[in-house]
Fold this sequence. Notes:
The chain has a domain at 1-57: Alpha-Beta Plaits (2-Layer Sandwich), CATH 3.30.70.120. Helix content is 33%, strand content 38%. The protein contains three helices and four strands. It has a four-stranded antiparallel sheet, with helices on one face.
Amino acid sequence: xxxxxxxxxxxxxxxxxxxxxxxxxxxxxxxxxxxxxxxxxxxxxxxxxxxxxxxxxxxxxxxxxxxxxxxxxxxxxxxxxxxxxxxxxxxxxxxxxxxxxx
Length: 102
């Protein structure tokens, strides 16, 4: 299992991207929450509200999910990071295998 992390301009955009991922059966769950982000952009310090998004999936779907995020994202340079989950509970793993395409 892996978790993919990205941020979006708002929860509406994150919901749209999450729906595309879930409708494609590439992930078992997408978590979305509002966050405040600070970063340098075009020579200025930006401080703005965004939406964080975690995508729970299997490793062999990461490239396809990254492509979907990039295609549907409003940012020219979105961050897309993948974190390996070394252990998770069997019940979730069994459920996940029933909702994510092989």
